[in-house]
Each structure stands twice: as C-alpha cells, then as structure tokens.
Write a structure and sequence with these properties.
Elements lengths: L7 H14 L6 H14 L2 H26 L3 H17 L1 H14 L1
Length: 105
C-alpha cells in the first residue's frame, strides 16, 4: 500500500516560488508551477486548495495595499482592483497545471 506524501502548504510554496521565477513565460510559467505544486500537494483536492488560497490572498493584499499606499483612496482602489484582476487571471493556467499535477501524484 503506497502512502501519498504532500501537503497544501508545500504545494502553495512551490507554486508561489515557481510562479515568481517563471513570470516571463505568461501561460507556460503558471502551468509548470501548477504541475509541480499539484504533485507536491499530493492529490487533486489539496492541489486545488493550494491554487486558490494564495491567488485570492495575493489579490486581496494588492487591493488593500494599493488603496492604503496611494494618497487618493479612489485611485488606489481602482489600481488595486486592476491588480486583483491580474492576480485572478493568473489562477487559470495555475489551476489547470495543479489538476494535472494532482492526477500525476
């Protein structure tokens, strides 16, 4: 009987680091990061959690920091909303890669 080793936290860390290192490859970078993170997460369910938690948290942090750091709250909110949309659009290829990686684990 084989045991699956992996965790959501390790999958999140691998996805984050590889996404940052492969930022220059718009679709392939997140896809590869998702495959590796999905394998490290140990299954499809944990891989999906490992994708959405950092993506949503990163988008929310961008939104709030842009709002707080700009002198004009409305301009900061618009800039933060744009950052949130970019962070969420990054989740698509990452999710596909994570599902593939979770199946391969």
């Amino acid at each position: 009987m084989s045991e699956k080793h992996g965790s959501v936290v390790s999958g999140m860390i691998w996805m984050l680091v590889l996404s940052l290192l492969l930022f220059w490859a718009p679709v392939i970078g997140p896809l590869l990061a998702g495959v590796v993170g999905g394998k490290k997460a140990g299954g499809v369910g944990p891989a999906i959690m490992a994708v959405f938690l950092p993506g949503i948290l990163f988008g929310a942090v961008l939104f709030f920091l842009a709002t707080i750091l700009s002198g004009l709250p409305i301009i900061g909110a618009v800039a933060g909303a744009g950052g949130f949309v970019l962070a969420i659009s990054h989740v698509g290829p990452l999710l596909i890669g994570a599902i593939v990686g979770g199946v391969l684990a």
